[in-house]
Every structure is written in structure tokens, then in C-alpha cells.
Write a structure and sequence with these properties.
This protein has one domain (6-107). Helices cover 55% and strands 9% of the residues. The protein contains 3 helices and 2 strands; from the N terminus they run H-E-E-H-H. The chain has a two-stranded antiparallel sheet.
């Protein structure tokens, strides 16, 4: 088994990005705690992209469910320590998943070409 460094992984992502013209997508799952990326020239229409979209939806639904269950435990001041700890562990897992989904979706939002140009304020040049 070959062990790749983070630098090796970045170079492979950069090469795939250059070859396809589409930046790699952060997938909603990890392997051994490390991020997984998808590079495809099919963009958001590939089988794995659709699978990743479905997995993101499941993760967001699970986060809502776990939050509701945790709320019931956390609102009760007499909840046993083990139940509170279990709720915290599940909430932490869901938060990690939701953050990964947000990072992945945020990276796929197109940046307007004129963003960051000086004097292009949507409010004009007036001081507020």
C-alpha cells in the first residue's frame, strides 16, 4: 500500500483539475478522517456527483433528526451523564458532516467575474 503525503494528494488534485477544467469536488464522506475529492469532466451530472448529492441530503436530514433527539435529552436537567455524552458525540458527528457539506457546496458557488474589483460597489460610491 502506497502512503501519499498531503502534498502528493494536492498535486494529484491539481493535475486532475487542470486536465478536466473543473475543480475537484469535496465529497461528503472521508476515508480514515481525510477528505475525499471527485474530479470529473461530467461536472455535476456524473454518477458519483449524484450519489454525493444524495448523501449530502441524507446527512442534513440526519443532523436535523439528531438535533431533535438531543434537544429532548439536553432540556431535561435530570438526563443521565451517559445520555448527554451520547447526544454530544452524535451532535459532533453531525456537525462535522454538515460543515463538510457547507464547505463542498460553498466551493461550488460560482464567483462573479467582477467581484473584488474596486469601485464596483452595489451601493454606488456614496459613504454610508
Amino acid at each position: 500500500m502506497t502512503h501519499r503525503t498531503e502534498g502528493d494528494r494536492k498535486r494529484r488534485r491539481d493535475l486532475a483539475d487542470a486536465a478536466s477544467g473543473v475543480p475537484p469536488r469535496l465529497l461528503p464522506w472521508a476515508r480514515d478522517g481525510k477528505a475525499c475529492y471527485l474530479s470529473t469532466d461530467s461536472g455535476s451530472h456524473s454518477f458519483l456527483s449524484c450519489l454525493a448529492d444524495d448523501m449530502e441530503d441524507v446527512q442534513l436530514e440526519m443532523a436535523a433528526y439528531v438535533q431533535g433527539a438531543a434537544d429532548k435529552v439536553l432540556v431535561d436537567p435530570m438526563s443521565p451523564h451517559a445520555e448527554v455524552r451520547y447526544a454530544a458525540i452524535r451532535l459532533s458527528e453531525c456537525l462535522r458532516d454538515v460543515r463538510r457539506v457547507a464547505e463542498s457546496r460553498g466551493a461550488r458557488i460560482p464567483v462573479p467575474e467582477d467581484e473584488g474589483a474596486e469601485g464596483d460597489s452595489p451601493h454606488g460610491t456614496e459613504a454610508h
